[in-house]
Give the backbone structure.
Amino acid sequence: MPSPSMPYARPAALPPFRITRIEAAPLFGESPKGGWSAEIRPEDSIHAIIAVHTDQGVTGYGSSFTDGRLVQAGLKVLEPLFLGEDALSPEFLSEKLHQNTFWMGRGGTLTHTISGIDIALWDILGQATGLSVGRLLGGSYRRRVQPYCSLLMEEPAVMRDVIASYREKGFTAFKIGWGPFGRALDTRLDEAIVRAAREAAGDAAKLLVDAGASDAQWPHGFKWAKRTAEMLAQFDVGWFEEPVRPDAIDDYWELRRCSPVPIAGCEVITRRQAFIPWLSRGAVDIVQPDVTKVGGISEQRRIAWMADDFGVKYIGHGWNTALGLAADLQMAAAFPSADLVEFIGGSPYVDGILAEPFALDAEGWLTIPDLPGLGVTIDREKLARYTPDVAPLFA
């Protein structure tokens, strides 16, 4: 408390940080395999880096999980709505963008584009105030968090080797997903893959399983998911993710009540309003909005607190870039249940674009940066390997 002789000195008011332009750089060349039916190729763009420039010389960075060329088109549509606005008002501006484009469709390209803009706005607010995003959100519940290494499922022998290689790198939690699991229509293969992963990870490691039922033409329904959940319980699996198609809310509701392992989902849902029936009906044990798709940090934080009110655990979906991971780390600082973050194993878009790459500590955890904004810095030369023109992001 300040003494009478040392009164509290109120900081000077910040001037507006007017947005002069927003740029997007599609990432190409190293897109990781996703295990999808129509598999992405390395040269495909599934992520974009967004830069919000201001008249105060401060630039914020974000990430969108969609084809970067769609993001560039989305910025052209949104430009009349954001030019000249104050970047220090992320929730106001992001909601303005949502509210004034609803008639073009909610949840698609524009929502994904706004997600990256919003992350960048919070980055600017943190830089302007000298505070990390986690502190701006009201944290901090934790200073470090356990990452789970997110890996594509492989045939059992390969799966065992892949898990072992990332265990050697220091990871102590793993999620395996997609690939042949559930798609080969062979329950014996599904079980063999999970057994191989558990043996390689060790009994003490966390092991999570993602069926990936949001993939095109998912072949299974509730009964397969129920039988598979019972199998997964034998291997102490921490959660069963996307076990049925993403719109099958009744199946999710019933599965949650009979499954011996927790049920996770909702990564494909966008905007907070769409989460209300999933949370109010108790359709999942763990809700997984993706900050680079759902509407950004402004939207993610509302979903996270709403989930907490319903007694549902919030763990962000994070199959994205280093900037998406940086946002997830800051969110982990700000919410009580967010004790894990997703970390794609072997993606150059995570490992290869920062000046100081993320590094595991001796226990296999990540320190949450307590620096202004997102707390990370893009390396311009590294990023240039994955996009045709980085200059607009930094000029």
Notes: Residues 109-129 form the longest helix (21 residues).
